[in-house]
Amino acid sequence: QVQLQESGPGLVKPSQTLSLTCTVSGGSVSSESYYWSWIRQPAGKGLEWIGRIYHSGSTSYNPSLKSRVTILLDTSKNQVSLTLSSVTAADTAVYYCARVLALGADYFDFWGQGTLVTVSS
Amino acid sequence: DIQMTQSPSSLSASVGDRVTITCRASQSINNYLNWYQQNPGKAPKLLIYAASTLQSGVPSRFSGSGSGTDFTLTISSLQPEDFATYYCQQSYSQFTFGPGTKVDI
Q1: Other C-beta atoms within 10 Å of B88: how many?
Q2: A80 CB contacts (<8 Å, ≥6 apart)?
Q3: Which of A14, A40, A102, B67 is most buried (CB neighbours < 10 A)?
Q4: Does the structure show a pLDDT above 90 at B17?
Q5: Which residues of chain A does B34 touch, with a Cβ-Cβ cutoff of 8 Å?
Q6: What is the pLDDT of residue A19?
Q7: Residue of A nearest to B55 (CA)
Q8: Do A105 and B49 touch (CB under 8 A)?
Q9: Mean of all residue pLDDT scores within chain A
Q10: Pick from A47, A105, A112: CB nearest B91
């Protein structure tokens, strides 16, 4: 059974960079059958897709966040990382990592439990 | 960008009721539509993928239909554990989620 665990600072100051790590167990981030995404959810609001990364390292980002987002794979640690620069209070949210099954109608089949990041001075 | 809408935004129902949630895409997405259930404080859980395929382990009272721009999620007989928020999500062009439908008592 695949398990995903997000980790990182729970508090980030405005204008600084948010950095999170997703540690994957029970599966390899290098698998060609899947790829990996980050999704966030502000309190009481809906889900927003942030971006994705394939086993090759190729990435795709939400256009609304593209200028501030970087997603990377660390195959040696079996981890997926997210950095979001120049954060504001609007970036306060629960951040989830998820595995994506590439099937045409790609879908998120496994999710981490999520980690709350608050942007505040 | 493909925009997703859902209706209703919330609904009240009783155990045993048949519930239908609608999702509409701003352009045709073929059958690249998935449904998730989210309980408070929890990560979303996949219910249905490719518009109508039930994810393994999901009860058969859940069903999905539709193609193109219009899709539905139906719960044939609502159970206590089904009171949650439901999201549709398209994967035709990157990913977009619908705004959610909250099902409560």
Answers
A1: 29
A2: A21, A22, A24, A29, A36, A38, A53, A71, A72, A73, A74, A97
A3: A40
A4: yes
A5: 105, 107-108
A6: 98
A7: A109
A8: yes
A9: 96
A10: A105
